[in-house]
Amino acid sequence: METITIKDIAKALNLSTSTVSRALRNSYEINPETKRLVMEYAEKMNYRPNPIALSLKDSKSRAIGVIIPEIANYFFSQLINGIESIAYNLGYHVVIFQSHESFERELANTHYLVSRKVDGLLVSLSSLTTDINHFEELMEKGMPIVFFDRVPQTDNTHKIIADNFEGSYKATAHLIETGKRRIAHITSPRYLSITSERLGGYRKALEDHGIVYDESYVKYCHHGGMVTSENEEAVQQLLDMPEPPDAIFAASDRLTTGCMAVLVKNKIRIPQEIGMIGFTNIAVAQLFNPPLSAVVQPALDMGQQATELLIQLIENPKRVSGFETRCLQTRLDIRQSTTGEIKEEI
Fold first, then answer.
1. Rg (CA), the chain
2. How far apart are CA 345 and CA 82, in angstroms?
3. Which of 68, 103, 188, 198 makes the best surface tag, with the fewest CB within 10 Å?
4. Over pLDDT 70: what percentage of the chain?
């Protein structure tokens, strides 16, 4: 099967080769309808740009660096699928590093990627990152960076996030509607953006339903769920309270699965004794016993939008004015761990 070229696409669509080339690079100079026609035809004909030839032409590496806490997390694996689907079609390679929730590893990964001349960075902060000076210095030097999911709590960065506040509000309100009143919240370190946003939604839902917020029902896991003993200790502390919770809202994949494991170990009936809802993208949530109610984030879309924005920053830096934040909607999937019924809400 012969390799299709830009000239072939241009001839088939009756466009100039320069127009096709700019459309494939997502240039602001090309109107959206032309971009769509070119991208759809290129995908249909299995067109793949040559990254080596492109890098020789414009002195770019045609590579973007990605730093995430861990690939094993299903949410981040979905994000990577989104990132690679866009990057590959636009002629970019993706280099992925894991911080494993370590600030030191995140810093080392950043330095290595910059030394390898990547054209830009996509970053989700580790649970131990409180200082982003290394990223700020790079941005001041012109390095395009887009943060996603776990983002700095500053306006001077580009961000792609989920609506954590609204997702948490809906999850907590749902538990209240099932008759739960002592709702615990197990979450990540206080200083992460997702922690404050999800805690905010949880508190607002309690307030709107006339339930007094009680700090003792909130447990922070310093390592974001990666340390099993930390998860177990948090849940056990809740179970040992004079008035233990009648529901638990966990704020991430690992925290959710860790919490359910402890409840099962203690032979606690879900949802009869303790209702359980997570903030998770686990594909097998419906296979848990009982099937898990959860707030689901648009991970694939988040990865795609972060990559599109980054490549726009790389290829059209002069067209970018100010910093952009995109907030994507979540979905609440209701299953037996809270009500005994299966229902999906958009």
1. 23
2. 23
3. 103
4. 91
Confidence of residue 127 (pLDDT cuts 50, 70, 90): confident
Decide if pLDDT at 60 tops 50: yes
SS3 128: coil
CA distance 97 to 295: 27
For 71-99, the pLDDT digits (tens) are 888 889 999 999 999 998 888 999 999 99
pTM over 0.85: no
First-to-last alpha carbon distance for the chain, in angstroms, is: 43
Phi-psi region for residue 177, left (φ > 0), alpha (ψ -120 to 50) or beta? Answer: alpha
Q: Which residues pair with 325 in a beta bridge?
A: 159
Q: E strands of 149-207, at which residues? A: 158-162, 183-187
177 shares a domain with 129:
no
* Sign of the four-CA dihedral 285, 286, 288, 294: positive
What is the DSSP pairing of strand 120-123 with strand 93-98?
Answer: unpaired
| Buried-exposed string 17-46: b where 16+ CB fall within 10 A, e elsewhere | eebbbbbbbbbeebeeeebeebbebbeeee
Structural domain for 212, as ranges: 164-298+331-345
Using CA atoms, how far apart are residues 278 and 228, in angstroms rounded to an integer?
17
In this predicted structure, what is the pLDDT of residue 18? 87
CATH number (domain holding residue 88): 3.40.50.2300
